[in-house]
Amino acid sequence: MQQPRWKILVFFSLFISSLAPAANVYVASSLVTPMTQLNESGYFEPSPIVGSSSSLARQIVTGAPADLFLSANQQWAEYVANNLTDASLRPFLENQLVLAQHASANTDPLLPLVEIIAGKHGLVVTGDPSIVPLGQYAAQVAEQLGVNRLPWIPARSASHAVKLLELGEVEWGILYATDVKASPSLTLTKTISPELHQPLIYWAVVLTPEGEKLYQQLNRLQAKELLWQLGFSDVPD
Questions:
Q1: What is the domain-level CATH number for residue 157?
Q2: pTM
């Protein structure tokens, strides 16, 4: 029996879409939680490729196929944009830097920030300042406070720093506020003044027309509302 024309067209459309290459979206590790929730909520379709901003940027510049790159700082976003033609650089989201402890910690949270950062009250974890944006922001704070020696545990990514603090391997963590909010094992001790470091802005690098479509998905109201609930904010004009 001959199939109705509309069924044939639907089948053909599904078949063609199944052959379409998957979009390649690279995101900083501190965006894992929001990207996962956006994906599960149906507000963003692709499953992202996750890593430190520096590592992802180098992969993209050396030829890894990419449609959209979400970097945790401007430096690595500009590195990609300056090395690839037709790349468009845009501010995406803003975050905060905080000092955190394990939820079970009994250390005095009123201890001076400068003493904690200097390692006088236990081990401190943050990103590796040589490659991880989180650690670079933390190093700027230390410099502003006059701490020259950084006795920190250098994590390979923001998510790795969170994991070490969750496991109780260290007493303190200099982390992103959104990562602390997303973890039931951690508690926020102090919000670090944004005057002590460069603006903590995530940057989007749109690399293809498909990347432009994906970027627009992330800027729809439903997606933005979810990001706001997780603690991110829009970048001021």
A1: 3.40.190.10
A2: 0.82
